[in-house]
Amino acid sequence: MSGYGDRETSDTTTSGNYSEEGKKFREFLNSLPRANRMKDVEDYVTTSTFRTFSNRWNFTPEQDEKLPAQVSQPNRLNLPVSYTMSDISVKDFMRDAADLACRAIAQDKLGHHDVAVYFYRESISLLNRTRSELHRLQQEADEQHASVINERILSIETRTQEYQKRINDLEIISKRKLEEEIENSKKSGDELELERAKFLVSQALEEDESGNDDEAVKLYTEAVQLCLEAVRCKLRFKRDGKIDANMARQIESLAKQALDRAEVIKGVRGASISGNSNNASQTPEFSRMQASSGIDDDEDGSVSSIDPKKALVVSGKGGYTEDEKRVLLSTSRVNGVDYLPFMQVDLQEKFAFQLPFSDRNGLLALSPKQQKNFARWARPSEIWSNPRMFERIDCFSIKQTIVSDCSVVASLSISALYEKRFGKKLITPIIYPQNKSGVPVYNPCGKYLVKLNVNGVWRKVIIDDLLPVGKHGELLCSYSNNKGELWVSLLEKAYLKVMGGYDFPGSNSNIDLHALTGWIPERVSINGKESHSEFNKEKTFQKMHSRLHKGDVLITVATGEMTTQEEERTGLVSTHAYAVLDIQERLGVRLFLLKNPWSHVRWKGNYSELDVVHWTDEMKREFKYDPNSASMFDNGVFWIDYDSLIHFYDVIYMSWNPSLFSYTTCVHRTWDAGCGPVKDVYNIGENPQYRLEVKSQSSSAIWCVLSRHITELEDFKNNREYITLLVYDTDGKRVYYPHDPPPIIDGVRINSPHYLCKIILPSAVHKRYTLVVSQYEKMKTIHYTLRAYSSCPFSLQEIKNPYNPCYQMTLKSALNGHTMLVELRGPKIYDVGFDIMCSNVVDVKAPGFFTKKSSGPFRPGFVILECENLPSGVYNIIRQHSSQIVKGHLF
């Protein structure tokens, strides 16, 4: 063979014999009456075909020199999904098993061990299916033929054991090679100090140029200390012949320059340092703007790097109210860790340290599968000789391992493909530190900040670079096949830190992509069981096909529950997410290009690499696809037709680019469990309601996303809160009856953190709608964010309850000098407060007279107000309007 993957061979004799054997078998089979097929087929197979391959498979796993020098490529049979067990299945399985075994042996001989292992495993899978079918035939055969079949079964078991043993041997060889590579690539402690010194200097220069003198001096000083230590180390290396003196002089010069610059700053600017370093300390107000991860409109209508001048227009006030800030603060603590909103000042986060950074929150919890194979936590510099943040952004290099986060990896894959396909930044800008060009960089000091959209706003997540490593040096987290590339592992670690650790309960791509990109989540149920409308096959395809190629949407699909037999038959994985890489419609055929996050295990049905029926020469040319080449190695990428997709998959997850809209705003609120009835069967008058006013000059659309804040892993794992949005055409007035008038959009209550409601305006209109937040059962208090996107100007305002409870107290004495103490109590999880207003008093000149007095700032669960020297009269006690207040007894 001429090289890896080359299928040409000079062993034409064996190949020809096999082809003739197959032809003879089919002629023989067609000549048999149906009643005689079972017996005669088994006689033929066991005496001819299997024996032919048994002779060709004469291979001792422990001795590579016994591998055949050349291996022919027998003809393969297509195994469509609808294939059923029959008399011919034994012969077909054995023939394909032989085909795969030949490939395994050939790749084994060439030293392509990973490829060989794949083919050995596939051959074993088919041999096991052959054995199962032979067991069935054995039960139906007479005693004589049952004995012959049993011999064949034993022979298959022997062959299977040999292949499995060879797989084990090759895995050991591969792991040893990996361990050797890791050991050889490790850097010494002195080299790591040198890297950190260079990074300190680069960070000091950036702070210096930004005018942050205090921080610059500090970093210069730390850099000098590390540089001097590195110089001493390099001089030692020089004696060992490892590093030349020229490099040592460069580092010494770098230290001198850093020291000189620090002295200049101290001497020239002196006491003004502190005054000149306040640029980064000015924290802007929170904004209702869709905080971007680096996306916005470009001139061609696609998505590009963020340009503040082209940001979405915020409807209403830009700043948040005190109530909203309390909501965002209360949901900052997720799984016991605080994740504060990301603000401009966080761009000045310190990333350079003399010692490697370790996360103060500790190591992430490992999953049971990780614990079984875990050996140690390692930094990138201990795994690769040249770690870097990016080698190249490529969806095909991303690989999931034993962490059950397929949707996260699928989300990373389609985000990477988006950046590569459109040349626009989407997911990479959320990683810090970054260089002057805004490109994330490797930090030898080990600290990173990742910006994630969690619980209503973008929040900062601090992580270190410690990664879980297995007993044979393999990474136990998702990673990039590009050696030393870090971004995949770091983004996964940051996201899973928020989610409680690597022991991840699973998610979906709507949730993941919303956190990673801020794009608008839409869930489309294919089977229609969870949707208020039937699945529109044609409309959905046209929308996905058109929008995907414009860069307007990211798509994943997910399977439902499948039996082991269905998984084996189809090649699909139960309850598993797949990235949609491409959608094509050519020659009247609609195909989807999908990627399994595992980077192996592919679809076996129509238009798979096994399908020799549908992949005609014309189709191959049109799609530039060669099934034979694709079958040489399984990377988890496959074509599947649209009909098969909607048959075997349950859900389509689409995430839409916010730049499709021109206007946006949001509100953050709390809905108390005790407010209103438990169920919205008869009364929705006390549900949170909002007035949406739209002024459209032409056809337009308003999308509203209701997002429930989640702060505990158990809540995320077993989400029992079913939320939705109802839309009424009631001129923006409060609605009390759920079906009078009937809603124009009656949302289905789902237990997902995000619910999307689309309001389509076919023509120019000026209307006021009422949006009602609804739950299936109000069992617990929830915090939520309601964000609206619109292609036309609009306003979104909370509909206040005009009938706020008012308690009246009358002091009837003719004398002044009354004393009154008012207490308001409630569960401590709620912030409470009230106002007292003088309504009608006898003496306005009394020392204790006031028009209005407040209990002060909201307090958790308990607040009092003591008033002295009050004049006689009437006093109104009014509970303050706040979503934080629990309804109940006030005194």
UniProtKB/TrEMBL annotation:
Residues 1-21, 273-303 are annotated as: Disordered. It holds the Pfam family MIT. Residues 120-147 form a coiled coil. One of its GO terms (biological process) is proteolysis. Residues 1-10 have a biased composition (Basic and acidic residues). This is Calpain-7. It comes from the Eukaryota. PROSITE patterns: CALPAIN_CAT (PS50203). InterPro entries: Calpain_cysteine_protease, Calpain_III_sf, MIT_dom, MIT_dom_sf, PalB/RIM13, Papain-like_cys_pep_sf, Peptidase_C2_calpain_cat. The active site is at C406, H576, N596. It comes from Orchesella cincta. GO terms for molecular function: calcium-dependent cysteine-type endopeptidase activity. Keywords: Coiled coil, Hydrolase, Protease, Thiol protease. Residues 282-293 have a biased composition (Polar residues). Residues 355-658 form the Calpain catalytic domain. Belongs to the peptidase C2 family.
